[in-house]
Write a structure and sequence with these properties.
The complex is a heterodimer. Chain A is an alpha+beta fold. Chain A has 5 helices and 2 strands; from the N terminus they run ααααββα. Chain B is mainly α. Chain B is built from 6 helices and 5 strands. The chains are: A alpha+beta, B mainly alpha. At the A-B interface, α1, α3, α4 and β2 of A face α5 and α6 of B.
Amino acid sequence: MTISGLTTPKSLLYYVVEIMKQPEYYVGEFEELVLLAILSLREQAYGVKIGDAIEEASGRSVSVGALYTTLSRLEEKGLVSSWMGEATAERGGRAKKYFKIEAPAKLALNHAETSRRRLANLKTTLSRG
Amino acid sequence: MSNQRRANQPELKVVEIIVEGSLMLDVITRLISNSKLIVSNRVTNQNNYSNQVSTHNLNRILGAHVNEDHLNGVSCRIPELPKIARSCLFVLFQAQENEAAIGDFIERYGRKYQELGRRRADSWLYLEIFRSFLPLLFRIAGKLGWLILGEWIKKHTF
């Protein structure tokens, strides 16, 4: 869409939204932690275990609401998929919801790691110079 | 312990009693005096909180030796969430998340209950619901916000 074609508020708004839309492989800091936790847990990745893994690794306490909000956002983006597991007595007879990462999530994690490495190298270069 | 003394010991059967909290020991004592049934070392009250009666107390009540090996198959009920907490969670979480999220709360609550006891576990639970409230509220507000924005655009541009 060229700028010359933006004559109405509606078209201008569509142009702004198109610019703002991020590629699906951009993830935030907490999303990245969640994806890494799911990756590390393999087939045992459900809510409580994911929260425990993040708390153990980062020392930061994770609320259930924040975790499920992030998980549902990741699922909408297609980065994770879920399935319902078995119900257990320790959960009051409620089933667990397991998660696993999909191929786009690996791309997102690689992208995040590459970006971090580039910035670290830049920082090293600047501190030497 | 001599064989004769062992033979005179009552046969142990394990039962689970559900009683009002403060009447727990009264009921146990009545049952022991009326029959040869021995209650398990875990009883639950109507709020489904598990209370452990020590073997020492049982020995004191029974006047007999209680062999813990006989106390098998006792189920420990995991405490259920308070009704207000459950209602809040039903409202905040989406339908497909409800079961899993509430299950997570129960699992963590059970752990805290074992570690800290009932009162502190309840405090932890309400704090955790409060902490979960904001991200979920933002999610709802975000969806509503886009809806309102969309309606505004339709009204002013078409």
